[in-house]
Amino acid sequence: MERADAVYLLWGELRRGDPDRIVPLRRTVPSGGAGEMWLVVRAERLDWGEPAYAQLSEAARRWDRSGELTGVQVDFDSSTGQLGNYANFLGALRAQLPEGMQLSATGLMDWPTNASDADLAALRAALDEIVIQTYRETTTTPDYARYLAATERLQMPFRVAVVQGGEWRAPAHLAQDPCFKGYIVFLLAKRFRQKS
User: Fold this and answer.
1) Within a domain: residue 9?
2) What is the rounded distance in angstroms from the CA atom of residue 124 to the CA atom of residue 98?
3) Do residues 161 and 134 make contact, with C-beta atoms less than 8 angstroms apart?
4) How many Cβ atoms sit within 10 Å of the Cβ of residue 18?
5) What's residue 196's pLDDT?
6) Can you tell me the distance from the alpha carbon of 141 to that of 172, in angstroms, rounded to the nearest whole number?
7) What is the dihedral of CA 16, 20, 24, 27, to 10 degrees?
8) Into how many domains does the chain fold?
9) For the whole model, what pTM was predicted?
10) Does the residue 196 lie in any domain?
């Protein structure tokens, strides 16, 4: 098996009903296996309470005991019209992370195409990278190439996330973009039927 350059592992979810607690989805600290390792938290809201920030910082410290954690990634589907507010949240989150910890966020394909220059600049100030998602749930968005044509507007390191088994034809311009860091494959969990 080939060694991954980067691995993003879903650690927890901050759910709509509780701004103070991240529900852990992974109890054990992963070990090695990639050049970069990212702790991912899925968020359903941005008005986090102090206990949630503290919980995330503690999890990042625990994962980084051996110095293998690259950073934290937030998975939140901010609308393009609310990117300024999202960038403010990300800046506040970054200030809570352990020193030297990087910050990443998943991004919608609409952002590079339709976000204002000011909102993209605010994201650049808050983040070390963006991961642009080209799928919804388990299928590739059909017009992904049209949206990805505007990635040069990001002017920051970015990766493109594709779904396992989805249709994909790499846009030629990505390989020429100095900010493009590569692809991430969103792996789908196998579902097993229980035999009766």
Assistant:
1) yes
2) 19
3) yes
4) 14
5) 31
6) 18
7) 180
8) 1
9) 0.90
10) no
